[in-house]
Design brief:
Blueprint (H helix, E strand, L loop, with lengths): L3 E8 L3 H16 L4 E9 L3 H11 L3 E3 L2 H6 L5 E4 L6 H10 L3 E5 L6 H14 L3 E4 L6 H11 L31 H4 L3 H4 L1 H9 L1
Parallel strand pairs: 1-2, 1-4, 2-3, 4-5, 5-6
Helix pairs in contact: 4-5
Length: 201
């Protein structure tokens, strides 16, 4: 029996956009979701780049105007994989359009932005989530299962380290995640968000 298709509209085609594109294409090979994602539209500002990315990543079409993409009737889920300073406006617009909203972490650059996004999603009664990609890592899934089964006893304390050193290279370019006005909370929001999420997962 064929599963219902849901139309995906993805805003952003850089690192996480590529990752999400791959996940949508592969999800049915690893899990048994109740629906099948259909890669309807990839959105980005630079027409030549987004067109090339859409072709390379397997999207049916592309848009350069995120509002136009969200307004399309064939888009059911809006996936926001852009720098944090762009999340609020896009997420609220998508929620008000009645779309399911997936948003990369950190949800917002400020508490107020994140709260406004949540309020919009709740008011519109749309499904919404923040993308925390480490929850499905096999080692994390095993640790969660061991904790839930009581294999490790009662947990009183944990220590976490996020071993990612690629930005420490002095020749690394000044990308958006290193600019406070774009990324917001810096390392705590960008990398610490994973640790905080997994501590409550």
């Amino acid at each position: 029996m064929s599963k219902k298709e849901v139309g995906i509209g993805l805003i952003g085609y850089a690192f996480m956009g590529k990752t999400h594109s791959n996940a949508y294409r592969q999800v049915n090979k690893f899990f048994d979701p109740t629906v099948t994602p259909r890669l309807r539209a990839l959105c980005g500002r630079n027409e030549e780049n987004v067109r090339n990315a859409a072709n390379h990543l397997g999207w049916e079409s592309y848009e350069t105007d995120w509002k136009k993409m969200i307004d399309r009737p064939d888009i059911d889920i809006v996936d926001i994989s852009t720098p944090g300073n762009e999340h609020k406006e896009m997420a609220i617009y998508a929620a008000q359009a009645g779309k399911t909203v997936f948003c990369e972490k950190p949800l917002g650059n400020t508490f107020e932005d994140a709260k406004a996004m949540l309020d919009a999603a709740e008011a519109a009664k749309v499904v919404n989530m923040v993308c925390f990609n480490y929850r499905r890592v096999p080692a994390i899934a095993l640790a969660k299962r061991m904790i839930e089964n009581g294999d490790l006893g009662r947990i009183y304390h944990f220590r976490a380290r996020y071993l990612q050193d690629w930005i420490a290279d002095p020749n690394f370019p000044l990308v958006w995640r290193l600019q406070k006005e774009i990324a917001g909370s810096g390392t705590l929001g960008d990398i610490g968000a994973h640790i905080l999420d997994l501590s409550t997962f």
